[in-house]
Write a structure and sequence with these properties.
The complex is a heterodimer of chains A (316) and B (413).
Chain A: H1 3-6, H2 9-34, H3 42-63, H4 68-96, H5 101-123, H6 147-151, H7 156-174, H8 176-186, H9 188-193, H10 198-224, H11 236-246, H12 251-273, H13 280-301
Helix pairs in contact in A: 2-7, 2-10, 2-11, 2-12, 3-4, 3-5, 3-10, 3-11, 4-5, 4-10, 7-8, 8-10, 11-12, 11-13, 12-13
Chain B: H1 5-8, H2 11-21, H3 23-42, H4 47-60, H5 62-87, H6 95-117, H7 131-159, H8 163-183, H9 230-247, H10 249-259, H11 261-266, H12 271-298, H13 308-311, H14 314-324, H15 329-353, H16 359-373, H17 375-381
The chains are: A mainly alpha (316), B mainly alpha (413).
């Protein structure tokens, strides 16, 4: 078997690119879950972020109202706002109304799936492409053989995603806000007694999670694929939730899981390209099988936030 | 918490409670109508015209009503299964995959038995219904779906794998498995080599579920429609499962585990086994939904290759119907008819007003959110009463050790 033809530099590079939406969405979900909110609506938020971000870029580029870089930033901004609003709604439902989080998340997913398709059919119609975030090349670095191709030929959002990993780890582990998040997720009663508003922290993390989910969607529609179509994410948001479990609620491990998953995906695409004699259905299936296996092993060693999915009610 | 007292309570009181428990459904419906109207206005459509078109499309003519019931049938099967799972504290999002597993197994059994029991010259013989072929196919479909759902239950019980996530992964795996088999060994021999429409051979008539008509009028009501006996099977199943859940000790154990795992464990119930069992049954009913689509409607298994290509998203709509039916199999009957009507009516709305039918997916999502959100008001009112008629407390727990997520004072405590 031609291993050289499978493990090419471009496979590693595309693994990094493919990991971008997972990293955004899974980091956002990590914040929400560390504070005790299981947001299962990530995929719906990604779809809404993907569509609205795409549409903002599509309109401004078509009418020429904004220059290209500005239009892309506008798209990102819109995706962040829409994702954040959906996160806020999820927080209202889970924190204030104390709805069962697993099911309400599925509702949010269906809502995002339906509404993004509805608006797409109404306002755009058929899949049209936009010119998305261009690849950035760096002097010297990008010219390094192999490594340059793997690491230094990506668009801006890829670098933002990877930069968010240490930032998220720092915020969670080294800041007061991070301490509050962890306290609220582990022991809301004690956190409340210390004067931390459980509701406020959970609203904040779920909204951040929604914003990052929106950004994850936009990273697909205006940076990776540069178009929108019905159900563009195809369940990537759910994979992101699985990655949070897999990574044991720690940003570095979550990002590592995203890389692993994307690498399997990139390999799968490469196997199709070079036409190896493996049925393509099994190649497509592989990442999901691996995720289940990974969850089996992950659950054995990890401690999940004690208050995950449990609404907090004062004075019980 | 004395849970057995729920049975001792007077019948009337319990009926009243159950009636009250439907109120989040009403609240959800009204709120969803309001939001849908706002969306329609935003899309420059008159909501009243849209709803009129939907009603016309869903129930205006004999054929429209039949199509509504045809669409409702798989939703009801899945909804019955989801109800069992939710009552057992398991969130089954795997209806899609379980439907596919059931359809694959059922169509295989039907094709093999059809070949064995029916000579080729009688393959298209009218009225050649063969009870053995149909029964075996249905059982095969049930078992395949049940094993596929039970797998998620097993992973949850023994490896603590969150069942929401595992069932979602299993959905994707099932779609790929279906595409693989339909392009390979299950591919219609007549199609092989010509083009690549992934579908099986057509079932012999003896393996098909008969069409259903009601002896009203002349010709009989629904005689010229696609309505089939799957609907009757589904309704009978709903009644059986209602009795099973509320009148048998096995059903009681499932609900007890859904209500409070720790207390059930103290009471000597094997919690792990009940978790697997409720997922097994849930998967089985989704599997029935799949095989009935094949035997009753399509007469072959075919797909466009997309996740919802075969199921028509009934695996998801069944969740909505189960919630809308108050997590009661009997309630799932009108709920399924309602959502079947929404789906069929939306097509008419799309044709008449140009509003995309995907509006219904969004509205379904809203209904789910509204139903679970309005439960807080029910919980507050029910704080003084502890009843098994409520939604299980453990529903919505993402995973974790069974022991630390079933604190007695959680939820309704």
């Amino acid at each position: 078997m031609e291993l050289d033809a499978i493990f090419t530099a471009s496979v590693f590079a595309s693994a990094i690119r493919l990991a971008t939406p997972y990293i955004f969405a899974a980091l956002g979900e990590t914040f929400a879950q560390r504070s005790g909110v299981l947001n299962l609506g990530v995929d719906g938020m990604m779809l809404m972020g993907a569509f609205t971000g795409f549409y903002a870029v599509f309109i401004t580029q078509q009418e020429g109202t904004l220059s290209e870089p500005l239009s892309l930033l506008f798209g990102v901004l819109i995706a962040l706002i829409v994702g954040g609003l959906m996160g806020l709604a999820m927080a209202f439902v889970s924190v204030t109304l104390q709805a069962k989080q697993g099911i309400s998340g599925i509702g949010v997913y269906l809502f995002g799936l339906g509404l993004s398709e509805l608006l797409f059919q109404q306002w755009v119609g058929t899949p049209k492409s936009v010119s998305g975030f261009p690849r950035i090349t760096f002097p010297i670095l990008s010219d390094i053989p192999v490594l340059g191709e793997i690491f230094f030929h990506h668009n801006l959002l890829v670098y933002v995603a990877f930069a968010l990993v240490p930032i998220s780890a720092f915020v969670l582990n080294r800041t007061t806000f991070g301490l509050m998040i962890r306290a609220v997720g582990q022991n809301p009663e004690a956190a409340d007694a210390m004067g931390v508003s459980v509701a406020r922290v959970r609203y904040a993390t779920t909204t951040i999670g929604g914003m990052l989910a929106g950004l994850a969607g936009a990273s697909l529609s205006i940076a990776l694929i540069n178009l929108f179509q019905q159900n563009l994410t195809a369940g990537q948001g759910f994979i992101a939730v699985a990655l949070v479990y897999f990574g044991g609620w720690r940003p570095w491990a979550v990002a590592a899981g995203a890389m692993l998953f994307s690498f399997v995906n990139a390999l799968q695409l490469q196997i199709k390209v070079i036409g190896l004699d493996i049925p393509s259905e099994f190649a497509v299936m592989a990442p999901y099988v691996i995720t289940i296996i990974a969850l089996v092993f992950a659950s054995k060693r990890q401690e999940q936030p004690t208050a995950l999915t449990k609404p907090y009610e004062r004075g019980e | 918490m004395n849970q057995t007292s729920g049975f001792a309570r007077s019948v009337w009181f319990s009926r009243l409670n159950r009636l009250v428990d439907f109120s989040p459904v009403i609240v959800a419906l009204v709120l969803a109508l309001v939001v849908a109207s706002v969306l329609l206005l935003a899309l420059n459509a008159n909501p009243l015209e849209a709803y009129a078109a939907m009603w016309e499309g869903a129930a205006g003519k004999e054929n429209a009503a039949a199509e509504t019931l045809v669409k409702a049938t798989p939703i009801l099967f899945v909804g019955i299964g989801i109800t069992i799972a939710f009552r057992g504290g398991m969130i089954n999002i795997g209806g899609e995959g379980q439907m596919i597993a059931g359809a694959l197994a059922g169509v295989t059994v039907a094709l093999i038995l059809g070949e064995m029991r029916v000579p080729p010259e009688l393959a298209k013989e009218k009225g050649a219904f063969d009870l053995i072929i149909v029964t075996c196919s249905l059982i095969g479909g049930f078992l395949a779906g049940a094993l596929y759902g039970g797998l998620a239950g097993f992973l949850k019980a023994y490896f603590d794998v969150n069942e929401i996530l595992s069932t979602i992964m299993l959905n994707q795996i099932a779609v790929q498995m279906m595409n693989f088999l339909l392009n390979g060994i299950l591919l219609d021999p007549a199609e092989a080599g010509i083009n690549n429409i992934p579908k099986t051979a057509r079932l012999v008539t003896a393996a098909q579920l008969p069409r259903l008509s009601l002896p009203i009028g002349d010709p009989y009501l629904f005689a010229r429609t696609r309505l089939h006996w799957g609907l009757i099977i589904a309704i009978v199943m709903a009644v059986i499962i209602y009795i099973f859940l509320w009148r048998t000790s096995l059903g009681y154990r499932i609900r007890a585990v859904g209500e409070n795992q720790r207390a059930s464990s103290y009471a000597g119930i094997n919690v792990k086994r009940q978790m697997m069992f409720s997922m097994f049954l849930a998967g089985g009913f989704a599997g029935l939904a799949g095989v009935v689509q094949v035997l009753g409607l399509q007469y072959r298994l075919q797909t466009d290759g997309s996740p919802a290509g075969f199921t028509g998203a009934a695996g998801f709509n069944g969740i909505v119907a189960a919630l809308f039916g108050g997590l009661n199999p009997i309630g799932a009957i009108p709920a399924s008819a309602f959502f079947g009507g929404l789906l069929v009516g939306a097509q008419k709305m799309q044709r008449d007003l140009g509003v995309p039918a995907s509006l219904i997916t969004a509205v379904n999502g809203l209904i789910v959110v509204f139903v679970v959100s309005s439960e807080i008001f029910i919980l507050q009112r029910s704080k003084r009463r502890v009843s098994l008629q409520e939604t299980p407390d453990n529903l919505g727990s993402g995973g974790g050790k069974p022991a630390d997520r079933a604190s007695p004072d959680e939820g309704s405590g």
